[in-house]
Specification:
heterodimer, A: 279 residues, mainly alpha, 11 helices, 71% helix, elongated, B: 304 residues, alpha/beta, Rossmann fold, Alpha-Beta Plaits, 2 domains, four-stranded antiparallel beta sheet
């Protein structure tokens, strides 16, 4: 049996010497992400707020005007606008999370080599992932919050607390997609993989995860396929809270799925980035 | 500061570093010389505690990179071969933000950044974008950035590759000042003049192993003669004439355009050559340099 002694004495703490707490690791990158925000917020305003607003007007108000507001057919919503808004915001959360975790991740690895420079400091791969996803989530959370506030006067919410919980659901959607897509991007050698992700991932999910129509319309088989997609869990959660018809056991299921995906995605993201940056 | 025993690094089947022993002492400037692919950069990345050791023992500042990586990196300055400056930040922010990663408070970071801009002679560029800087300025900024945490040990991977002579001399001057200030320097280079200028001690690496070790002067003494006589004859004659001057030096090397006769007394060689009735088109007697040692040890064929 090998016996090792340590001059520092036995400690319960398995962290390496000088390793930062998760909080400290993120705090040290605050100034960096603040400059990124200062540089990019203008473009973010257009893509985060203006584009979705156009969707709401086009789909919710103009197209929705032709759709009969039958609560039985619209998962409890009294108008198509009330039906489509929670789904739109949830899928918007996904879109922001995905686009902020694709090219920017590849850029930090391949083009700007930001991650390599950061790793030459006491920061660890885990800290880089945390701060990166933290920034993405700031984007997602602020965009969804503003979106929900703008929609409040349209009379699509039934309670005051519903939109808040719906917003938290949208944040959960963002977390799940940010972590999973970060893990994907960290492995990718060329940006062509992003085209595949958007065409075969983001667009079908946006269209068929129940944001624009009830997934019951898909027919029994495809309905079950839709139920397996992460976005449907977020759309359903967001809509239940906005419409005010909450099935709490379903809420639990949705939350468990989204949190599990986030945790799995985070572990994969750290592992993949670690392998990618090891030289 | 650095102690390596039987240090190895493999990437799959390829062994980049094949068991090297290195000892770097406080305050000295230590060089890794070698052709491309000799294993210098792999060694540097292991020392920088970003690349795990495959086998062997490595201690940096008395700590093990496998377990104390963050603590070691906190006391190192790293100037990588490829610039990793943030092109989207201005010059000042590159320093300031980097300092924050080390946990240095904001006021100290700003002050350090200003001092380092001064040191790197780029103060007037503080608000410029990095992409607008010249190659020499980028290098100086990279070195300035690596000093933001007042490192005990500064690692420089080919610091002057790609720079013009003026920029190289400015950099050498700055590195010399750092050395005077007591910073331990570890430098990789394939420029022999750089190694002679900067390094107290160096190792020559070739194909993953250490081929020789010592001060520049010791290495010249051990692997070359004091002087070299270069004899230039007509094209195609060198091979045939080599036999006629062989006995004049310790060693004769035939190149396509000249003969090199290694001897402690170069002028005597030239005189003897003329006495034998040989008429070289040109002759040159020069001191041996590290380049002679380097080529002797690592060969003249291209590494890649």
């Amino acid at each position: 049996m090998a016996i090792t002694t340590r001059s520092s004495g036995a400690t319960q703490d398995a962290r390496p010497a000088g390793a930062l707490s998760a909080w400290e690791g993120m705090a040290r990158q605050y100034d960096y992400w603040l400059t990124v925000l200062k540089r990019t917020w203008r473009g973010g305003v257009v893509s985060s707020f203006l584009t979705p607003l156009l969707y709401v007007v086009a789909m919710g108000v103009l197209l929705g005007g032709f759709i009969e507001g039958d609560p039985d057919k619209l998962e409890g919503a009294t108008s198509y606008l009330a039906f489509v808004v929670p789904g739109l915001v949830a899928s918007h959360a996904m879109t922001i999370a995905v686009s902020e975790s694709t090219y920017p991740v590849m850029g930090a690895i391949k083009w700007h080599k930001t991650f390599y420079a950061q790793l030459a400091t006491p920061l660890a791969v885990r800290d880089l992932v945390n701060a990166f996803i933290g920034f993405v989530m700031f984007r997602v959370a602020s965009a969804c919050a503003v979106f929900m506030l703008v929609l409040a006067p349209f009379g699509v919410f039934t309670t005051w607390w519903g939109p808040i919980l719906a917003w938290l659901s949208q944040v959960l959607v963002g977390f799940a997609f940010a972590a999973l897509v970060f893990a994907y991007s960290a492995r990718l050698r060329s940006e062509e993989g992003f085209g595949v992700l958007f065409r075969l991932g983001v667009i079908p999910l946006t269209l068929f995860s129940g944001a624009f129509f009830p997934i019951g319309n898909l027919g029994p088989v495809l309905e079950w396929v839709a139920r397996l997609t992460p976005l449907w869990h977020g759309v359903s959660l967001s809509r239940m809270f906005c419409v005010g018809q909450v099935d709490w056991s379903l809420v639990l299921l949705h939350v468990v799925v989204l949190v599990t995906l986030t945790v799995v995605g985070w572990f994969l993201a750290v592992r993949n980035l670690d392998r990618r940056l090891e030289v | 500061m650095i102690s390596a025993r039987g240090l190895r690094k493999s990437f799959g089947d390829f062994e980049a570093v094949k068991g090297i022993d290195v000892e770097v002492r406080r305050g000295e400037a230590f060089g890794f010389l070698g052709p491309n692919g000799a294993g210098k950069s792999s060694t540097m990345r292991m020392i920088a505690s970003v690349s795990p050791v495959t086998s062997g023992e490595l201690r940096i500042l008395g700590m093990d990179p496998a377990t104390d990586g963050p603590a070691i990196r906190g006391r190192l300055g790293v100037c990588p071969q490829e610039d990793t400056l943030d092109n989207e930040l201005n010059v000042f922010d590159n320093l300031y933000i980097y300092g924050r990663y080390f946990g240095i408070d904001r006021a100290t970071c700003r002050e350090r950044a200003r001092e380092l801009l001064e040191f790197a002679q780029i103060t007037e560029k503080a608000r410029s974008k990095v992409e607008d800087l010249s190659g020499g300025m980028k290098r100086r900024l990279t070195i300035a950035r690596s000093l933001i945490n007042n490192p005990d040990l500064l690692l420089l991977d080919e610091p002057t590759t790609g720079l013009d002579p003026q920029a190289r001399h400015v950099l050498w001057d700055q590195l010399f000042r750092l050395k005077q200030a007591g910073v331990t320097l570890v430098i990789t280079t394939h420029y022999m003049d750089e190694a002679e200028q900067l390094c107290d001690r160096l190792v020559v690496m070739d194909k993953g192993v250490i081929a020789a070790e010592g001060s520049p002067r010791e290495l010249i003494g051990a692997h070359s003669t004091r002087e070299v006589a270069e004899l230039r004859f007509g094209v195609g004659e060198h091979e045939a004439l080599a036999g006629k001057v062989e006995d004049l030096g310790e060693r004769v090397e035939v190149l396509p355009d000249r003969l090199l006769v290694y001897s402690d007394h170069g002028e005597d060689v030239v005189t003897a050559v003329l006495d034998r009735g040989l008429r070289p088109l040109a002759t040159l007697v020069r001191r041996s340099t590290l380049e002679d040692v380097f080529l002797r040890l690592t060969g003249r064929t291209l590494a890649d």
